[in-house]
């Protein structure tokens, strides 16, 4: 399936940035970086904004529906991605809009999320 190359490049760039953040132990804003890597990935797959504009809340459902209808990805991975997107949305809010530090549990969760979505996005976009 053909995907949008600009959104693909943005998604991969954000994954590279996330990898750098991890190597430098710059984890406090990692949730935001990973959120937008996944958001750009969904944009790349969908190619065009539904209803003429991208919506942070709605893109997750539209992406899942599109992938099911077009047999892009199995349902188990779609469910996992759907849940990760919700988790990242919350962690992005914490990273971008609060003065709270991440807990150790959240940091470990972000590292696991990075491994999973990095594999999914890089494999899928080859």
Which architecture does the CATH hierarchy give at level 2?
Up-down Bundle
Overall pLDDT: 93
Number of strands: 0
Report the helical percentage. Answer: over 70%
Query: What proportion strand?
Result: under 5%
Gyration radius (Cα, Å) is: 14 Å
Task: Compute the number of structural domains.
Answer: 1
Low-confidence stretches: none
Distance between the termini: 11 Å
Protein model, in words:
- This protein is mainly alpha-helical and 126 residues long.
- The chain has one domain (5-124): Four Helix Bundle (Hemerythrin (Met), subunit A), CATH 1.20.120.
- Helix content is 72%, strand content 0%.
- The chain is built from five helices and no strands.
- The chain has helices at residues 5-23, 30-46, 59-69, 75-97, 104-124.
- Helix 2 packs across helix 4 (75-97) and helix 2 packs parallel to helix 5 (104-124).
- The radius of gyration is 14 Å and the shape is globular.
- The mean pLDDT is 93.
Topology at a glance:
Blueprint: H1 5-23, H2 30-46, H3 59-69, H4 75-97, H5 104-124
Helix pairs in contact: 1-2, 1-5, 2-3, 2-4, 2-5, 3-4, 4-5
Summarize this structure briefly.
With 126 residues, the chain is mainly alpha-helical. It has helices at 5-23, 30-46, 59-69, 75-97, 104-124.
List the defining traits of the structure above:
single chain; mainly alpha; globular; 126 residues
């Amino acid at each position: 399936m053909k995907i949008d190359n600009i959104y693909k490049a943005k998604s991969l760039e954000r994954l590279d940035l996330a990898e750098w953040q991890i190597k430098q132990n710059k984890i406090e804003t990692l949730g935001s970086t990973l959120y937008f890597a996944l958001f750009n990935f969904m944009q790349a797959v969908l190619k065009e904004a539904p209803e003429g504009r991208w919506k942070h809340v709605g893109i997750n459902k539209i992406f899942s529906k599109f992938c099911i209808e077009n047999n892009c990805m199995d349902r188990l991975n779609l469910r996992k991605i759907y849940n990760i997107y919700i988790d990242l949305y919350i962690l992005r809010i914490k990273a971008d809009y609060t003065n709270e530090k991440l807990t150790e549990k959240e940091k470990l969760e972000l590292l696991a999320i990075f491994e999973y979505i990095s594999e999914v996005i890089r494999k899928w976009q080859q």
